[in-house]
UniProtKB/TrEMBL annotation, chains A, B:
Annotated keywords: Kinase, Transferase
Matches recorded under PANTHER family: BIFUNCTIONAL UDP-N-ACETYLGLUCOSAMINE 2-EPIMERASE_N-ACETYLMANNOSAMINE KINASE (PTHR18964:SF149), ROK (REPRESSOR, ORF, KINASE) FAMILY (PTHR18964)
GO MF assignments: kinase activity
Superkingdom to which the source organism belongs: Bacteria
Species name: Klenkia soli
Record protein name field: Glucokinase
Database matches in Pfam families: ROK (PF00480)
Length: 320, 320
């Protein structure tokens, strides 16, 4: 019975750490979201969390056969060292080796957005497709690329840092020190900051989207966000020719208000070729930890079982 | 003796068709450049050329064991059908199948810029590297990407159409119908057109580069070209994280006048990460047909021999 064996998937973000207990057949048994609070010894804190979730599983008669932990940043996928993760304050942390040393459980690590891309391919909006561009739009913006079924990690593990592409050359300053970065215009933080600069009012990006019907400033800021995103997708499409573009992250809550102008802008910006389909994530904010769990299943030598994940019951997952 | 067995590599361009006879060990035995004149039956013309070169080889006691033919355009690498090649006027031409039908020789086909990328990895400026971005800057601009040792072809074979990335959004019109494309500013045709628009004088891009010391208009147009190219490379580097960027195509004749500002602009546009090294092609305009020959060697089941190509005598190759 696959229900007796499960894996843990942890998605460690700058703000929230999401954890899933998933049986090896893909059924979600337990889900939790917590504020990330890693203290002075992040590896010990994460190992404790894995131990706690393993004990919780055992109490339910479930044996945990592995854990996958994914993080943002520049990651050497070969060694599992996180070279730089600004949101977590990590530099050259040998995460995989350090976790393996502390845990009795087989543990693997990966990149949060690339793990989300894996999950979208297994059971989400890119199911069955081999050439995928996933762009997550939250506080910041990052991308995961899949080419011919394999994740593109880059020469130093830093592929996908799409948020700082100079989409509006010479444009508004970015906290990174450059000007005109995609994130300046199209990230959640960027939308909120640009709306505040124009109106003096502090609102979240979701709050700005909620005012599109009645507030010209909200419409203007949002139109500039979706236009910048569409231009960025034109460039990525020309370069990479994805079979599908999947938008993930918090801003996908805007649904059609995001999707419609981005689709229109992408189609308008392409010559000679049809635009690839653009879809919203089917997995919401759980994509990263589902991908982390899938990595754990692969690491446990049970990768063949992932073919069945798309038909598993995920009613336990809160999408959003 | 590998010298007794050879392959043909043909690089069919909009203006020039370049052909090489290369022994399977990588030694160039014969090279020719001719104006492309394919007539009404391009497959028959190309097959005749292959037959002629095969006879020429036979007269020298060399047996041709395969041919590789590479072209620009959107190509299905699986079937060898060229879906669209604007410079050749082709649409949905089943090139590989049609050539195979006419020739007794094993024949394979491919994409010109991706073949150049293969050659640069085998024996050029990207030797031994698995994550490569090759950008060819000639009349137009195209790119070849290699990720973890494998060419990125995209979902429809159209990856690498970098010349039409909207690098200067809302900028000058491009013959493609869009505005602000990379090619508008940084291609040979773009540099010549922008110089003529500013001065009323017709000069080639090379002519513009030749005037940098004395002509402020030339300096301005060239600075805008290298700045647009650097910005495009910033975006591509953030997205793909190449271990090396190789610049190929006719504009590489500008040497340091191209390389120095592009390197400086790429470094200045990146935050948090060092720029990848940028090199000029080591193979010049022969990169495409060397890659085509390498494809033929692979197709003949002799791919193991390619490891020896980097040390072969290529003194017969005119680089330029």
């Amino acid at each position: 019975m696959s229900a007796d064996r499960a894996v843990l998937g942890l998605d460690v973000g700058g703000t929230t750490t999401k954890s899933l207990l998933v049986d090896v057949g893909g059924r979600v048994l337990h889900q939790q979201h917590r504020a990330t609070a890693l203290g002075t010894d992040p590896v010990a804190t994460l190992a404790d969390e894995v131990d706690r979730l393993t004990a919780l599983a055992a109490a339910r008669g479930v044996t945990v056969v592995g854990a996958g932990v994914v993080t943002p940043g520049m990651i050497d996928e070969g060694t599992g060292t996180v070279h730089y993760a600004s949101n977590l304050g990590w530099r050259d942390l040998p995460l995989r080796a350090a976790l393996a040393e502390r845990l009795d459980l087989p543990v693997t690590t990966g990149h949060d957005v690339r793990a989300a891309g894996l999950a979208e391919r297994l059971l989400g909006a890119a199911r069955g497709l081999d050439d995928v561009l996933l762009v997550t739009i939250g506080t910041g913006i990052a991308a995961a690329l899949v080419s011919a079924g394999r994740p593109v990690t880059g020469g130093t593990g830093a592929a996908g840092e799409f948020g700082h592409a100079p989409i509006r050359p010479g444009g508004e300053p970015c906290p990174c020190g450059q000007r005109g970065c995609l994130e300046v215009y199209a990230s959640g933080a960027g939308v909120a900051r640009r709306y505040a600069a124009r109106t003096g009012q502090q609102r979240s990006a979701a709050g700005v989207v909620g005012r599109l019907d009645d507030d010209p400033a909200a419409r203007e800021v949002w139109a500039e966000a979706t236009s910048a995103l569409a231009d960025a997708l034109v460039t990525a499409t020309l370069l990479l020719d994805p079979a599908v573009v999947v938008l993930g992250g918090g801003l996908t809550a805007a649904a059609g208000d995001l999707l419609d102008p981005v689709r229109a802008g992408l189609a308008a910006g392409l010559t000679w070729r049809p635009p690839p389909p653009v879809h919203l994530t089917a997995l919401g904010s759980s994509a990263g930890c589902l991908g982390a769990a899938a990595l754990a299943v692969q690491h446990a030598g049970l990768g063949d079982l992932l073919a069945g994940w798309s038909s598993a019951d995920r009613s336990g997952v809160v999408v959003g």
